[in-house]
Specification:
Elements: H1 2-16, E1 31-36, H2 42-60, E2 66-71, H3 77-90, E3 94-98, H4 106-114, E4 118-122, E5 132-134, H5 138-152, E6 157-163, H6 169-184, E7 188-195, H7 200-210
Parallel strand pairs: 1-2, 1-3, 3-4, 4-5, 6-7
Helix pairs in contact: 1-2, 3-4, 5-6
Length: about 220
């Protein structure tokens, strides 16, 4: 899922950094930076590997001059905003963002746009209008999960919601789908919620911590 949206973001960015969006020669001297908010789970490691493989090939093929990646510590929006401001000063032509927050980075993103930098957010998107957004219907994903549980447990069940990274747009959209699903299927009772950071280790620890205080799941 993330690898697909990342590749879409890379393709879109390569097209957008040339005014006419079609001449490869116009992007051969351009540089792109990835601002990533988190790398603590296997999905993000796969994403970073995909970035490296795809951009190395793009540089080899002469599509772009360079593409660096930068990851902040522990999903900190303030640190990522400062990182983006630093990327502006370094003179990148485009910045691809997997954002810690849909709103907290908007000021830095607007600064980048005002400096003539193309900004593309994907997966964890930003809401600043000047940035391009590549995403999928994550709310539907959350609703689909609740629809499945309703079929699996037609007589009802207690549900523990294991969420992703706190504050990230993807987590918020999936949670919105879960809430919609709970309203749609009142026999499903969401009795608890923890953040598992989309990491098996973190999720197991969080679930183990809350289970003793919950009714039977």
């Amino acid at each position: 899922m993330e690898r697909h949206t990342l590749r879409c973001a890379l393709l879109s960015t390569a097209l957008l950094i040339t005014p006419f969006m079609h001449a490869q020669a116009d992007t051969a001297d351009k540089t792109i930076a990835l601002s990533n908010n988190y790398a603590g789970n296997s999905w993000r490691q796969s994403m970073l590997n995909s970035w490296q493989q795809t951009t190395e090939q793009a540089v080899k093929d002469g599509v772009i001059a360079g593409a660096d990646s930068f990851t902040t510590a522990e999903n900190q929006a303030t640190e990522q905003a400062a990182q983006i401001q630093n990327l502006i000063l370094q003179g990148y032509n485009a910045i691809v963002i997997n954002a810690a927050s849909p709103t907290a980075l908007n000021g830095a993103v607007k600064q980048a746009c005002d400096a003539g930098i193309v900004v593309v957010s994907f997966d964890g998107i930003v809401t600043e209008p000047c940035a391009y957004r590549i995403s999928m219907d994550f709310k539907q994903s959350g609703l689909d999960g609740m629809d499945y549980l309703a079929k699996r447990f037609p007589d009802g069940a207690n549900v523990l919601e294991v969420r992703g990274l706190a504050g990230v747009s993807v987590d918020g959209m999936i949670h919105s789908g879960v809430v919609t699903g709970a309203s749609k299927h009142p026999q499903l009772k969401v009795v608890g919620s923890v953040n598992g950071n989309w990491s098996q280790t973190a999720a197991q620890k969080a679930v183990a911590g809350i289970l003793p205080s919950l009714p039977k799941i």
